[in-house]
Fold these 2 entries.
Entry 1:
Amino acid sequence: MMIRYFAMLRDATHRSEQMWDSPVSSLGELLIALCKSYGPEFHKWVVDEKGNLGGLSIILVNGTDYRHLGGLDAHLNENDVIAIFPPVAGG
Amino acid sequence: MYGWTGVILRVDLSSGAITREPTNMRDAKLFIGARGLAAKLLTDEISPRTDALSPGNKLIFAPGPLSGTFAPSMGRYDVVTKSPLTGAIAASNSGGTFGPELKFAGYDMLVIEGRAKHPSFLWINNEEVEIREAGELWGNMVPETTEMVRALTDEDARVACIGPAGEKLSLVANIMNDMHRAAGRSGVGAVMGSKNLKAIAVVGTRPIKVANPKAFEKFVKIARQKISENPVGGTGLRVYGTNVLVNILNQVGAFPTRNFKDGYFPSADKIGGESLTSNHLLRPKGCFACTISCGRVTKVVNPKYAGKGEGPEYETAWGFGADCGIDNLDAINKANYLCNELGLDTISIASTIACAMDMYTDEVISIEDTGGLEIRFGDAETMVELVRLTGLRKGFGNQLAEGSYRLAEKYGHPEYSMSVKKQEMPAYDPRGVQGIGLQYATSNRGGCHVRGYTISPEVLGTPFKMDQHATEGKADVVITFQNLGAALDSTGACLFTTFGIGADELAALLSAVTGVHYSPADFMKAGDRIWNLERQWNLKVGMTSADDSLPTRMLKDPIPTGPSRGKVNHLHEMLPEYYKLRGWDAEGIPTEEKLKELALA
């Protein structure tokens, strides 16, 4: 699958996108793997102060917010495009 | 007097009379200040049938009771008048330092009336107020005007002025203050131009009195902490500015592209906040007492588009970018700098250029109509040139200066204008985000996002997450955000404080500064009251429920590509519920019961 990073997550990962080949069964599992891979700079933008994974971020699976796809249990397929944004906004 | 100064300054440019009068404190308590209080005065004093560009219109500059205090990010003001673009009430909000300075000079509102015989400027030095001849100021760009006015008055004066676009009565002209901040929307710059008023310089040295200093200090600390601890208010906006939204809206398929023909722009990343930060940003910049600093001081070194200034905001990058099919951020920056110099609203002129590109593509207009210019999507050079021509009303720019609706209508195809109530819609495709479509349709000043920023729950997930494609529950959330925005604008607070605080904190701050107790419910009710006041006046202007609509393209033509492919806006599923929850009848008219409840009957 393709993972796209935005804003502060590009600083944390030093990339804007990557292909992910390792098997993961769910979005939650992917986020845990990414936190492990990229360390605290990544972790702080995707885990909220209560320790909830994904609590802060805007995470899209093929353009749909993960919260409308079953949350962290959302099943991922090899052709999915995952977009991860840290908590940012504008107007 | 606490929070409010208790004084209104009135300047009649026709007679030269300068008078002061007490602020109506009953109105101040009910309508707070800024947008709300100025709307009350305007609607009390001018006929809805007044020609917006006639001497009979009034132009009100109004800070709020929190403006000029050290409450975080609360130094804004509103320009309230009858809009020449929409015919509706205009309330155009700006930051910088001009609003607080007007408070320091001692005024809750500055009311400009009539029309000067010759181009003039106004010099307010506390209680000393003079109308002076503009002389050589007329014809100058905003930065030169600002410097010249300071040289003529005081080097520390805060200056609000119009550029050539306002002088030439462009219906998409803005009023600029502090050189780079804009009261952008609804053509308020044309009203200032119609009054032959080039600039206003203000120096104020008076304190703002606070009713309950200890409580105020406590609530300021709480607000600062909540904003700074919020990842958006505390980090995201300072690092990337508002333009960080480009990729988010594109990734959810609600990024209007090529005059809203599409909702997805494949090369969006080239024009987003990440690219701006990497390639153009010199430093972030905040307005008065701001702890967020979303402003961007930027520079372009590419000789073709070289320049330095402030911006672009998200809306601007979208308008001159995706909406014109352009992914050249150098050119987008240049167009933004030109708008600030000429005094043009970036959203409206960008959308008007996109409209012209669309009409040219579909052969509704030809090269004969455009004065020899080929106006094609993706042509960055032509886009920048059209901005310049519009600001000066030269060539085809003279037609663009009227805004997209009048341009498209002139050629018999108003459906090409992506506007509501003749004001151009901003950077969120209502086919991809249902609630924002309802907000656009019902906004009291026409196409606008900040009147009710439902993008927060529908896309960003703050303070809660709603499905962007659902219609259920959207009427209720639109009303809540509209009422909150109306009350917040009226205090002088920046909308971005809501990325940290809400009605509870704003009501506490307002109570502490004014000594008038506002519960959170009182605060929200004031917002409801202001909204209904604006609505009533728009109805008296002649607007009806038929004006609470969206361009046909939004209702009939599905988004062709991207994550929201196949979607249209379902406005008519949401609008009846919206009217009902507002306490309006089926035609969108506030009921007597509702008006009584809000002390508007």
Entry 2:
Amino acid sequence: MSLQTQQLNAAVSVKGGPVMSNWSAWLLWPDNVALSVFALGLLAMVFLYAARKPMHGIIHSSCTLAAHGTRIVSRWMLRAAEGMQLRNQAVLLAHGQESEAVRIDREFERVGNLIRKDLQEFPALQRKMLEEATHIEDDYRKCGTVPPPSPEWVAALKSIAQIKSGGDIPRTLLEDINRSIEKIHDKTITEFRRSYEERHKILKGMQPSWRSVEKLIGEMDKKMVTLETNTKQIDHHMHTLEAIRAKDSKAEHALTVSSFVQLAISALVMLIAAGGTFINYKLIALPMSEMVGASDYLTNSLKTSDVAALVIILMEASMGLFLLESLRITQLFPRIASMDDRMRRKLMIASLVFLTILAGIESSLAFMRDMLIADKTALMRDLASVRPAPSDGVLTSIPMIGQMVMGFVLPFALAFVAIPFEGLVHSLRTVIGVGLVQGMRGLGVLLRIVCLLFKRSATILELVYDIIIVVPLMVERWALAWRSNASVAPSVAPDDIALAKSRRAA
Amino acid sequence: MKKPLNIVILLFSLMLLGACGDSRMHSHGVYMLVDTSGTYAQEANKASKIINYLLATLNPGDSLAVAKVESRSFTEKDIVAKVTFDKRPSQATSQKRAFKDKIQTFTQAVKPSAYTDITGALIQGAEYLNETKSGIKTIVIFSDMQEELGKGTVRDFPIELDGFRIVALNVSKLRTDNADPRLYLNRLAHWEARVRKAGATEWVVVNDLENNLESILVTRGTNG
């Protein structure tokens, strides 16, 4: 090694450190880097050419192994996704079936109530209608037109008119008759008119009966329409139930979409409730420090008083949940739903009492908060040597009253969070299930693509390997070509043929 | 059935113990030294305002003590008022009112001292704050930081202020400082070096009492 090279190495080791010196150790002729690199490349190429067959085998086996592995995982993923989908479908359909059954039950209950109520009224209604009809019929009979009786003197008049011999006697007679007739006629007309007047009166008296009957018929009509609407709804629900029972894909899709919509709505309501909870928390966090101490910390930044306030709110929410459960508005706890009515009523009363007590506590805490703030403000004024501003008693008490009312009302309002919470719980299961199935399917497809890539990459890597040792391969081909010229021999190397066969087999 | 219950009780007890043990770690202890030497005694009103600021800022569970810096200040007699605020905010407010009254009485009758024993006052302050077991310990020095020791007063030994924050307030410039500002700067540098050597975590100088009072106390989150 020349002195110059030694100096160079020494300089490299000082500046570049041990990495550079190690690199230079690989050089066969350190003073001629290019030649050394060329020689090393040549050696490597010879080595790689010699190891071509096992290297191709390693590349091929590794890629095949990886491809098989990913393929198995992909298959497992897709199968698991299918299984999960079936499970989701079963749960979704069962839940949908249950919901529809409850709806149908409620509709039947409504119809039952309607029918029971109307059937109770029906005998009275029928009696009333019959009475009205009898009344109308009687009146109708009374109104019947009775022609005036034919006077007997008409026959007498005929016989007098047949007297052929004229004279004063028949004329006088006829004149007398005429006068009598006119007199009787006038009397009859008067009688007839009076009779008609009476009938008109009767007809006028029939009007309320007609109207009453019309009203009764209208009411019946309305009830019948309501009943018809209810029956239509029952029909609709029955169709849906039948579709669910038949595992119809449309029904399943509708239920899934419904779950997504319900999740969105429930989440929105829960968000609003979270706002209410925050306000509630702010109302009682400060006064809670008066009860549990303001300087106790559970963690580095979590005050015990804050946690206590949160616990109070959560207890209120729990009581609200139990109240709604015992009222059978929500059905999150099967144990409560299956309780007998007496026990359930007891639970309802207990929940309501606890909720009222907690609301009272919160209201008094809100009052205490106002007092604490007022006290602190007074202290700040004292410390700053500022005179207190003249206060209007009514105006200053409005926020305090508002806080107290809010403190009492908010727990009851928060109790209704149980309804969207139930919706959220039920819909979240479906949505998460759908998301998981889609995710697993996506992953399965992705792994399938990766499997294909591994399969193809085996060929690509082999070709890349061959590119690296292209010079020895060319020499080999030349040598084969020269030998084939000398004797009849296959132009392709036997190793290559064997390798190609094994690849095809794979 | 009993085993899980025991575990739950144990965990709950541990949590409660943790909570109890943690309460003092989050509390703030402040010991304020008020220089009463020479002309600085006239600044007592300013000191009173700063004490009012501290009273307004400190929370229930925190500790506050105000002591005067006199010729020899390593004594409890120099503590004008001290209090550890109750955990209940309403009680803490009453205590703050009483503390304010004590300070008002003190500022109305401040007598100037002949010498200024800042080192002795610092040692006394550190002792008091260590006793309070506060999580964050701050010694506020309302002084020109010119230490003058009387005959026989020995203070040239290393002091221990491990984990303390030292805040120098209203470090006024003396006449000699105006003639040669290096004296003022050297004085501050000397004190900073001394308290840092003693183990203080922070050295803060606050001269703008109108706008920079927030620097006196460190917020709980920033102190880890």
